[in-house]
Specification:
The protein is an alpha/beta fold. The protein is built from twelve helices and seven strands. Helices cover 35% and strands 21% of the residues.
């Protein structure tokens, strides 16, 4: 069984490849895993093209939701995008926060950072920056962000609890996040969980929906809300790379679900977490 560092390296290598290939190749896969299907060309992703700030050069077709659409970003906000890729969500967020705000993208894949920085230079944005780092240990000081967004990234991280603790640390009191991610209802077949290609493709790194939401609660967040939810169908011709026909039939009948969720939650304000008389 792979260690956390080995799993991270699998993801890093896969997304380095994705950064260098064409968008059409990414969209013909499940979150860029390369598991091409004749049944569909867009298994996970949503359409960004109608949103203000959209830049096609930054859209690699790797997301599983539209977190920036639900993130309640205001003019002047400081926004952090976790797993920023080529900059798609960061540039959408920049349209919301305006010239008076700031957007920080964090990614641990150098090829993705190169692509994002080149896109920002072409757009002439001086209030969007991209930092190399691990989202389990963000290169950001505490109480920095008004809003944090992320699109189909936490499912790839072994220590999801650690990421939510980091999100809590980096958000300002009263700040909030909107995160799109892949979660499970029921247990995926072992062969899918162990397939590195499917792991980089957002599925086998996912955890149970109930567990995911509990991690948010135990990290101290309040007012948790599911802003959007959709079931994900993985075509048979993709599953056949990992399962026999009989195993696919059993999987279809098992009630196991692969779900994209967009989750919102808030870090309590200073008043709420430290009212007069309750602080040492």
């Amino acid at each position: 069984m792979e260690t956390s560092e080995q799993l991270k390296e699998i993801v890093r290598q896969k997304y380095s490849e994705i950064a260098l290939q064409e968008k059409d190749d990414n969209q013909a896969s499940c979150c860029g895993s390369g598991c091409c299907s004749i049944e569909t060309t867009n298994i996970m992703t949503d359409d960004y093209s109608t949103l203000e700030g959209y830049n096609p050069d930054a859209d690699l077709g790797l997301g599983c939701g539209l977190p920036t659409q639900f993130a309640k970003i205001k003019k002047g906000d400081v926004v952090i995008d976790l797993g920023s890729g080529a900059g798609n969500d960061a540039f959408i967020a920049r349209a919301e926060t305006g010239e008076t705000g700031k957007v920080i993208g964090i990614d641990f894949t150098p090829a993705m950072l190169d692509k994002a920085r080149a896109n920002a230079d072409k757009l002439g944005f001086n209030n969007v920056e991209f930092r190399q780092g691990d989202i389990e240990k963000m290169p950001v000081t505490a109480n920095t962000a008004d809003v944090i967004v992320s699109n189909c990234v936490l499912n790839l991280v072994p220590d999801k609890h650690g990421v939510f603790q980091e999100i809590y640390r980096v958000l300002k009191p009263g700040g909030h996040f909107s995160i799109s991610d892949i979660v499970l209802v029921g247990t995926l077949p072992h062969k899918i969980q162990q397939a590195a290609e499917m792991y980089a493709g957002c599925v086998s790194g996912a955890i149970q929906k109930e567990t995911y939401l509990e991690l948010i609660d135990v990290s101290g967040f309040k007012n948790q809300t599911i802003q959007k939810e959709k079931n994900i169908h993985i075509p048979d011709d993709i599953l056949s790379q990992y399962l026999s026909a009989e195993e696919i039939a059993a999987f279809r009948q098992s009630g196991t679900g692969i779900v994209s969720v967009t989750v919102y939650a808030e870090k309590p304000s200073a008043e709420a977490c430290c009212a007069p008389g309750c602080c040492s």
